[in-house]
């Protein structure tokens, strides 16, 4: 059976689609398609008026109150700066509050429910792009998803495509071995395909574009996953049916919930996303309407529309603001919406899952890339033809990272003002005659009321999510009961407050690095539970700790009131090292889990697809593909070697006189090697990739003996 499976083509015949590069500078309104079902195309003006009008009204009220706080006497320049920074930061949380309030009522009254699907007309492909991931994890997820789809009775409408951009030679070979094993397991008509791309040009966006241009013509629509995604068969079928029933839908986004997380920090995120996330997502979906956004995974996309309108151009200049588009998902949603297709979310569609980074440091690594991608959107937000809500999505993403340096500046200005009050010599004789010195003063009662208002609207979305979970009998029981849910929310709020100033400094540093022209690159994401060495934690957070100590001592020496005001920020920074250490601890997370704290409904009642994926991952891991040396595996198994060669793309003939140095070195090492062990030791990672891409060099590798002749004798 294995020999037959290995000879089955790893990919179907190509069915190409043209994917022209789009322009951000030119666009004709006449190029926008007319809706096929205009009656269903309703713009939620009242909801937008509520969210943005309410947010504006709250911001105006907060700014007015802040003005009166600082204008008890003559207002200084620093106080005007404080007023400006406060207004910017307050507008951000005010808009989040009104959107969450809308979402609260939306969840309460059950808006946005997806209909069940009894039949399908078209073929859909489930695409999973991977990049240096564990093959046991990713192929177990694909197998579990496929089983779940088959259980719906509509499995014949779906294919599965793993598109790899892996650059690690050992992981590449492990992917191929896992793919062949999965094919053998499923037997004929598996409809599971695999492609490895020699060069990861344009990263994930380029990976998806390569698939669309080569095989997209086979499929009416595609469901794009991430390497840590899981979706139930019911969710996938309902997404496909929703797109079939809506001829104007270009992208339909599901709401992925976080599952399978056990470290302390990941459990905080998992709980917050599950309890508060639906409120925030529902509010966003309600006011966005058909002008929604795309998050890059767990969504269904109309393939031809994507091909025709989502070819991403390179931005002029060098990274971080130039080069290829890093956060491609927002831009793809904007382009497909510009063309007249709708983009929207079904936040109440259950069965969509993902995972999250296990520690504070891990999330900061991912956040650095997201920060660069979102700030890069400042060059795209003004593109011609984008609808206003699309620009708002870009603005929200940009502000999500600028909020941290704005908050930092607000704290610094506040310290300077208090310092001025306590130590600066009053200026008695100014250009304008006054009877009193120019001295910054505040209204303490108004300041206290404004602080209470700020905290109320900041925490309200969390309260909305908690109330809705408590109101739902099934969710409340699955989440550990009312008392445990309330205690879990208090833990989440408390530690989020401690982690917030650390993330504020990390994000501020990222913004400043990007403004200075430093590119982030694209590192593989660490997904497994596990701690980080203490030395690395100290190195990453020692500056935060020192800054917290200096700020605390300075604030206490200036004024005890200032120290009290800044104490949450100071505590978070002073404890940055132990907090970061605790964030990645599996033991702390499991201790809380055993006591029913930070428990999500998906843990109390695990989805079957997640249980099956975990079971298959354990089974696949026992095969040892992820632990094996790729070159040795290719050398030892002729069937694997033959299958690997079949999966390689056709090589381009080399022009005479053109010598690839890495290939020349790799060939020389293989010629000089007496055993395969010599080759394994001598070949560097890039040279290994050269060997694995070259049929002639693979032949040289295969000709090497497994051990020296004297040892064999």
UniProtKB/TrEMBL annotation:
Give the matching Gene3D superfamilies.
Spore Coat Polysaccharide Biosynthesis Protein SpsA, Chain A
Membrane topology per the record? Multi-pass membrane protein
Q: Which SUPFAM superfamilies match?
A: Nucleotide-diphospho-sugar transferases
Give, as in the UniProt entry, the pathway in which the protein acts: Glycan metabolism; osmoregulated periplasmic glucan (OPG) biosynthesis
> Transmembrane stretches, by residue range?
49-70, 90-111, 398-419, 450-471, 483-506, 545-564, 570-592
Q: What GO CC annotations are associated with the protein?
A: plasma membrane
- List locations, semicolon-separated: Cell inner membrane
| UniProt-listed InterPro entries | Glyco_trans_2-like, Glycosyltr_2/OpgH_subfam, Nucleotide-diphossugar_trans
For this UniProt record, give its keywords in alphabetical order, as a comma-separated list: Cell inner membrane, Cell membrane, Glycosyltransferase, Membrane, Transferase, Transmembrane, Transmembrane helix
Gene Ontology molecular function: any one = hexosyltransferase activity
* Protein origin, superkingdom: Bacteria
Where the record annotates domain Glycosyltransferase 2-like, the positions are 223-439
Family designation: Belongs to the glycosyltransferase 2 family. OpgH subfamily.
Return the NCBIfam families for the record: PRK05454.1-3, PRK05454.2-1, PRK05454.2-5
PANTHER family in the cross-refs: CELLULOSE SYNTHASE CATALYTIC SUBUNIT A [UDP-FORMING], GLUCANS BIOSYNTHESIS GLUCOSYLTRANSFERASE H
Q: Any idea what this protein is called? A: Glucans biosynthesis glucosyltransferase H
User: Which organism is this protein's natural source?
Assistant: Bosea spartocytisi
Gene from which the chain derives: mdoH
């Amino acid at each position: 059976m294995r020999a037959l499976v290995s000879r089955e083509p790893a990919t179907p015949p190509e069915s190409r689609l043209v994917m022209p590069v789009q322009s951000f500078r030119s666009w004709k309104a006449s190029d926008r398609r007319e809706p096929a079902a205009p009656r269903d195309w309703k713009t939620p003006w009242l909801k937008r008026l509520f969210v943005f009008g309410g947010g504006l009204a709250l911001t105006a009220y907060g700014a007015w109150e802040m003005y009166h706080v600082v204008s008890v006497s003559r207002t200084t320049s620093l106080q005007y700066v404080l007023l400006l920074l406060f207004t910017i930061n307050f507008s951000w949380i005010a808009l989040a509050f009104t959107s969450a309030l809308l979402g609260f009522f939306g969840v309460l009254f059950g808006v946005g429910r997806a209909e069940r699907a009894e039949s399908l007309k078209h073929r859909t492909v489930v695409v999973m792009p991977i990049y240096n991931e564990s093959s046991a994890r990713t192929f177990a997820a694909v197998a579990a998803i496929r089983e779940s789809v088959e259980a719906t009775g509509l499995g014949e409408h779906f294919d599965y495509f793993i598109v790899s951009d892996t650059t690690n030679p050992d992981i590449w070979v492990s992917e191929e071995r896992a793919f062949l094993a999965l094919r053998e397991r499923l037997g004929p008509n598996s409809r599971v395909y695999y492609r490895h791309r020699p060069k990861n040009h344009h990263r994930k966006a380029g990976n998806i574009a390569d698939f669309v241009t080569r095989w997209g013509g086979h499929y009416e629509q595609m469901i794009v996953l991430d390497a840590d995604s899981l979706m139930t068969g019911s969710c996938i079928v309902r997404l496909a049916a929703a797109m079939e029933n809506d001829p104007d839908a270009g992208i339909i986004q599901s709401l992925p919930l976080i599952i399978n997380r056990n470290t302390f920090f990941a459990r905080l995120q998992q709980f917050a996303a599950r309890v508060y996330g639906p409120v925030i997502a529902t509010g966003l979906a309600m006011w966005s309407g058909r002008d929604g956004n795309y998050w890059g995974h767990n969504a269904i996309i109309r393939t031809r529309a994507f091909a025709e309108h989502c070819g991403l151009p390179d931005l002029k200049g060098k990274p971080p603001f130039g080069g290829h588009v890093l956060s491609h998902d927002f831009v793809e949603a904007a382009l497909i919406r510009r063309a007249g297709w709708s983009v929207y979310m079904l936040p109440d569609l259950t069965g969509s899952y993902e995972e999250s980074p296990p520690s504070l440091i891990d999330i900061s690594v991912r956040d650095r890339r997201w920060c660069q991608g979102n700030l890069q959107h400042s060059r795209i937000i003004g593109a011609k033809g984008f609808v206003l809500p699309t620009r708002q999505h870009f603005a929200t993403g940009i502000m999500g990272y600028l909020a941290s340096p704005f908050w930092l500046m607000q704290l610094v200005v506040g310290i300077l003002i208090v310092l001025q009050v306590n130590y600066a010599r009053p200026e008695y004789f100014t250009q304008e005659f006054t009877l009193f010195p120019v001295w910054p003063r505040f209204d303490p009662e108004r300041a206290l009321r404004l602080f209470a208002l700020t905290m109320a609207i900041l925490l309200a979305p969390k309260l909305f999510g908690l109330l809705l979970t408590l109101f739902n009998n099934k969710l409340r029981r699955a989440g550990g009961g009312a008392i445990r849910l309330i205690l879990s929310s208090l833990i989440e709020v408390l530690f989020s407050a401690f982690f917030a100033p650390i993330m504020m400094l990390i994000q501020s540093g990222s913004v400043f690095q990007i403004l200075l022209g430093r590119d982030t690159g694209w590192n593989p994401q660490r997904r497994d539970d596990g701690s980080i060495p203490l030395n690395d934690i100290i190195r990453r957070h020692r500056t935060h700790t020192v800054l917290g100590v200096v700020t605390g001592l300075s604030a206490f020496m200036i004024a005890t009131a200032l120290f009290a005001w800044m104490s949450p920020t100071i505590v978070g920074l002073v404890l940055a090292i132990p907090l970061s250490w605790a964030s990645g601890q599996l033991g702390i997370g499991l201790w809380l889990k055993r006591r029913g704290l930070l428990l999500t409904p998906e843990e109390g009642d695990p989805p079957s697809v997640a249980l099956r994926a975990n079971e298959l991952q354990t089974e696949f891991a026992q095969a040892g593909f992820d632990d094996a040396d790729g070159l040795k595996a290719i050398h030892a198994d002729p069937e694997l070697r033959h299958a690997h060669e079949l999966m390689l793309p056709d090589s381009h003939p080399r022009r005479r006189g053109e010598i690839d140095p890495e290939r020349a070195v790799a060939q020389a090492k293989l010629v000089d090697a007496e055993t395969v062990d010599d080759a394994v030791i001598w070949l560097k990672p890039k040279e290994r990739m050269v060997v694995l891409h070259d049929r002639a060099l693979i032949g040289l590798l295969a000709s090497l003996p497994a051990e020296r002749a004297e040892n064999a004798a």
